[in-house]
From TrEMBL:
InterPro entries: CheY-like_superfamily, Homeodomain-like_sf, HptR, HTH_AraC, HTH_AraC-typ_CS, Sig_transdc_resp-reg_receiver, Tscrpt_reg_AraC-type_HTH. GO terms for molecular function: DNA-binding transcription factor activity; sequence-specific DNA binding. One of its GO terms (biological process) is phosphorelay signal transduction system. Keywords: Cytoplasm, DNA-binding, Phosphoprotein, Transcription, Transcription regulation, Two-component regulatory system. It is found in: Cytoplasm. Pfam families: HTH_18, Response_reg. One of its GO terms (cellular component) is cytoplasm. Residues 439-536 form the HTH araC/xylS-type domain. This is Response regulator. It comes from the Bacteria. It comes from Paenibacillus thalictri. Residues 3-120 form the Response regulatory domain. The modification 4-aspartylphosphate is found at residue 55. Coiled coil: none annotated.
Amino acid sequence: MWKIAIIDDDRQVLKGMKQVIPWEELNAEWVGESLNGARGLELIRAKQPDIVITDIYMPIINGLKMIEILREEQYKGKFLIHSGYSDFEVARKALRLSVEDYLSKPVSRNTIRDALLRAIASIESEKNVILEQEKLRDQLMLYEPFVRKELLKTAVTGMMGETEKEAVQILGYGDSSHMVIGLEIMRTSRIAGVKASDRLLFRFAIQNIIQEILEEEHYVFDYVELHGYHAALILHFDKSSLYSDIIHQVKQSACKLIDCIHQYLQIDVRMGVGGLKQSWADISDSMEEAFQFLTQEAASVQASSLYEYTKLSPVPSAHAAVKLKTMKFYQELVEDIKQTQGKNAPKIIRHYISALKQSQHPQYGRLQLLGAQFWAILSYALNDEEISLEAVSMEPSIERELSQVHTVDQYESWLNGKIAQICLNQQWHDNFKHKIAIDFIKQYIYENYSKEITISDLAEKVFISKNYLSQIFKDATGETINNFIIRVKMEKAKGMLFERKYKIYEIAASVGYKNIPYFSTTFKKHFGVTPAELIQ
């Protein structure tokens, strides 16, 4: 019910007002009355009525002063002024204080009824707005991790536009410096030939190992998935940190990550360490430096698969300041192929070729290396969508094609030709029809595996029916949603078992299983051994 309070220094007015208000019709109740503004303040603070009917000229504190104090206290109720005086200055101040209505004494039953109905309608409208805002805020909280990841990706790849720059405060770390560690999963027999869903789980497991180790070592960091088998690990340090002070610890941690990933997953990775940057605007430079090992321009740290960026001697050219953002080029091109089937590819390639011409004068062998690198990264990226570039390409051998490329202009033509062949392939179009929804569902499962996840819940999040979602998910991944959820939970449980820090019942609970025997049965069905057998 709507709560109404009445403040007036005339007892007869208080009595009459209570009699004239159609309480039942309005679904309202009387919660109290006061003879002056001071007592009115106490009443309103205690009862928090939805609507207050008040006189202006009263003892101790007048009506306007009472309203002003309550507005300063963030009281949101509606005020109806009921007065026998007509004063322009009073009306102006009442307007400033967001008074709902100004009623002249004496007031009729119909007048007070209509005024109260308008106030109630206004309250209902504002409540609906608040509910919509809360609903939107809840949705934003749901999507915030994904928005954050996209912002991180645009920042680290140098693709951040003006809109993203304004939203960069979402990322935080404004008072930090940043360093990127580039990660490449080596395409060994352990990785090559497995299904896309298995590759996703491998990457998920790698991310878990990195997260657990770096949290133990008290790093502040973000992990960003890039194209194919590449990722960027962004480390955040105090603004006053110097490269020379942190690089030794960073290299030790990176070597530990490489060793643990190999030990627990039998997956080989290599990493590159970029420079330390003072702002988000320069973080893409650190990423380019971190991935210099792809073009064999970095020095290997001892005998490990860790590379440290070393600045090359400056090229004596008027355009030496132009930086060739190779990783940005790959990221832009892969994203454009996935999102628009290559509509912007010629423009992206033209910009890259222009920078390539200005930054250096590649020799024949250099172009072969760039072409092979481009094809490898594109192959890795599209493998996740079950697209084989060997099947798409019209030439049986990329090496043979590249042997015919002798100039930068020829290299540009070759790039454009390969993108056109890929994007004209009908298999490509079919595989990407529901990619955004499927990617969202996978990411949601990765981040919420500890909770109970139902297909109905997932279908609501992407606004399609659960039957259709089940169909397109299986078409895209080759397995059911429920099986994918179980696989994610089991991989996480396996990783925790290898840590040897948790009891089996703790691990079961952390991945969403309350029934320990059922957890053990599911684990054995998935890996062929029970959790207890695995750690023995």
